[in-house]
């Protein structure tokens, strides 16, 4: 009898272990997150715009759920920070789009951190815009692989200088196509394991460059829709932007076709959205505002999410939602514990997506930029001037109803004021974060002209710093400096990327930090032309760019601590030193 009971118990335990083992081996769903750059809500056929065709993006709406009232921030880096952390960007250290103000604080947890810990393979291919130097770099924020550019914008979209896990490389063809190629390769390499693929594309952000096959279809088209601000609309710019969106759609189709061909559609969550409103006046559903503005037109984005056989096809959701909801919603859909160092602002909307009802909490969503804040409830928007609009009936914000709804204004105004006091933590005036060097887990670190300060004759190639270089370097009294923090003492091979015509050769440049110094002489000419203008469909406001040549400055020992890194010339025998693009540090043993 005892033997029988023991056998029965052993068999029961074995079956239970087998059952648990089987459950643990179930592959978690993959996640693919597309993020367009400067695409407006109205830049899609599925939004009602008949001036372009976007069948692949539209299919995500048709085959999944769409949010009619989804909001992001008015510009790039704040939205990206919110998507990655689930927190309002004003809490995360982000307050600008360049010069260090775009960085996410190191105490923040990203969605890639969470998914990597849960066993996911993670990759980001595209425009990062939340910190360049490790540990702000994507490879230090949960992404196993990174390919793209960490700055806010790039000056050339055809085979430009990029980076791959910190190593400088040359791109291959049109940038969005190239990023998609990397995404396809990543999917193929990880098809049997759960993966998170983040594709933050760089278009339709200017410069307005797009391959001929997309431009030729758009350039002579007669438009049905014009902006309500059509007197300010540049039709050439609009056509370029929509051609770029059609290129995005083509690449979304390449990714979704790959998912289908590998029979991964039922186990892959695919999300598509943009990071802010349109980057110029063009048709946007009659909404007020564009990129940079805290009104509806500057912050409303399409948001489509497809998960075949889990999320109902064609499901349209009216509840307000925000970029801060993406992280908690994904962890909810994936049944992954939401463990972060800092409290989350976003809400888990996974029950809503899976057909359940959620409690209406009289939620507010906040939009902020450049000292201006507006607040959105389910039905109303209180704008920066404290005007009140019934968005359900007045998306264009034409009729201020504040005077007849003073109770609503009072509640929303109090919430807005409290939010500003509570969340706006970091500003340019109180940001004491230096640019980091010597992060123990990183081999490579870039210090670009973008993050440097020019002294003397030296000038920036353009007022927008993200893809600029320094020029007019003529004297031993000129210098470029960086406020840096060496996180760990080490030895670094340093290369300076420069251009110099043959007639100006011979300058000796010196890099110094405290008592450490290295120097080298410029002996090889390199004077390529500026590029980009020939590919631009409309004139740009950003800097034109060119190739730069690496000069080996030598090996430098850097002690731990904060200080000023200085690049200067100690000899200028001819007219100038040359133009400067960046320093690349490589840790050596």
- In one word, what is the shape? globular
- Work out the oligomeric state of the chains in this entry: single chain
Count of separate DSSP helical elements:
11
Q: Looking across the biggest beta sheet, what order are the strands in?
A: 7-6-5-4-8-1-9-10-2-11
Number of domains: 3
**Class inferred from helices and paired strands:** alpha+beta
C-alpha-based Rg, rounded: 26 Å
Largest sheet: 10 strands, mixed
- Proportion of β residues? 25-35%
Terminal-residue CA separation: 69 Å
Family: Belongs to the sulfatase family.
Keywords: Calcium, Hydrolase, Metal-binding
InterPro entries: Alkaline_phosphatase_core_sf, Sulfatase, Sulfatase_CS, Sulfatase_N
Pfam families: Sulfatase (PF00884)
Features:
disordered N terminus; ten-stranded mixed β-sheet; alpha+beta; 589 residues; Alkaline Phosphatase, subunit A; six-stranded mixed β-sheet
Structure description:
With 589 residues, this protein is of the alpha+beta class. The protein folds into three domains: 291 residues, Alkaline Phosphatase, subunit A, CATH 3.40.720.10; 57 residues, no CATH class; 154 residues, Jelly Rolls. The chain is 22% helix and 26% strand. The strands form six sheets. The protein has a ten-stranded mixed beta sheet, with helices on both faces. The N terminus is likely disordered.
């Amino acid at each position: 009898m005892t033997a029988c009971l023991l056998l029965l118990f052993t068999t029961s335990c074995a079956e239970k272990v087998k059952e648990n083992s089987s459950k643990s081996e179930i592959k978690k769903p993959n996640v693919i997150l597309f993020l367009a750059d400067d695409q407006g809500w109205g830049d899609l056929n599925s939004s009602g715009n008949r001036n372009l065709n976007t069948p692949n993006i539209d299919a995500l709406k048709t085959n999944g759920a769409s949010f009619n009232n989804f909001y992001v921030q008015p510009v790039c880096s704040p939205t990206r920070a919110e998507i990655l952390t689930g927190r309002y960007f004003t809490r995360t250290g982000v307050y600008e789009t360049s010069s260090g103000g775009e960085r996410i604080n190191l105490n923040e947890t990203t969605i890639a951190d969470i998914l990597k810990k849960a066993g996911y393979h993670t990759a980001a291919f595209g425009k990062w815009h939340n910190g360049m130097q490790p540990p702000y770099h994507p490879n230090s924020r949960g992404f196993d692989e990174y390919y793209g550019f960490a700055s806010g914008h790039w000056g050339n979209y055809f085979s430009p200088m990029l980076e791959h896990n910190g190593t400088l490389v040359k791109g291959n063809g049109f940038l969005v196509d190239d990023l998609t190629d990397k995404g396809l390769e990543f999917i193929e390499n990880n098809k049997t394991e759960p993966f998170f693929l983040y594709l933050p594309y760089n278009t339709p952000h200017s410069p307005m460059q797009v391959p001929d096959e997309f431009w030729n279809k758009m350039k002579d088209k007669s438009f049905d829709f014009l902006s309500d601000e059509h007197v300010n609309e540049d039709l050439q710019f609009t056509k370029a932007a929509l051609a770029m969106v059609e290129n995005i759609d083509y690449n979304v189709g390449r990714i979704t076709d790959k998912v289908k061909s590998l029979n991964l559609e039922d186990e892959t969550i695919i999300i598509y959205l943009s990071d802010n409103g349109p980057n110029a006046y063009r048709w946007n559903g009659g909404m007020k505002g564009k990129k940079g503005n805290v009104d509806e037109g500057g912050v409303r984005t399409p948001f489509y999410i497809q998960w075949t056989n889990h999320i109902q096809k064609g499901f349209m959701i009216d509840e307000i939602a925000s970029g801060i909801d993406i992280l908690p919603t994904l962890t909810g859909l994936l049944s992954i514990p939401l463990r972060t160092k800092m409290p989350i602002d976003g809400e888990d909307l996974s029950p809503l997506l899976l057909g359940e009802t959620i409690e209406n909490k009289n939620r507010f969503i906040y939009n902020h930029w450049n000292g201006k804040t507006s607040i959105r409830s389910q039905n109303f928007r209180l704008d920066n001037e404290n005007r009140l609009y019934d968005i359900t009936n007045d998306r264009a914000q034409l009729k201020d109803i504040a005077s007849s709804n003073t109770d609503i204004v009072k509640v929303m105004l109090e919430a807005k004021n409290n939010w500003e006091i509570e969340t706006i933590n970091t500003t340019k005036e109180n940001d004491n974060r230096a640019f980091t060097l010597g992060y123990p887990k990183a081999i490579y670190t870039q210090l670009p002209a973008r993050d440097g300060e020019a002294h003397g004759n030296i000038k920036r190639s353009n007022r927008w710093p993200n893809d600029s270089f320094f020029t007019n370097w003529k004297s031993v009294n000129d210098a470029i400096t960086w406020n840096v923090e060496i996180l760990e003492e080490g030895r670094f091979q340093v290369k300076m990327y420069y251009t110099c015509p043959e007639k100006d050769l011979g300058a000796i440049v010196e890099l110094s930090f405290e008592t450490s110094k290295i120097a080298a002489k410029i002996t090889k000419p390199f004077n390529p032309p500026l590029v980009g203008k020939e590919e631009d469909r409309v004139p740009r406001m950003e800097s034109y760019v060119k190739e730069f040549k690496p000069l080996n400055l030598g090996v430098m020992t850097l002690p731990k601590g904060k200080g000023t890194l200085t690049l200067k010339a100690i000899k200028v025998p001819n007219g100038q030193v040359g133009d400067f693009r960046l320093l690349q540090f490589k840790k050596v043993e």
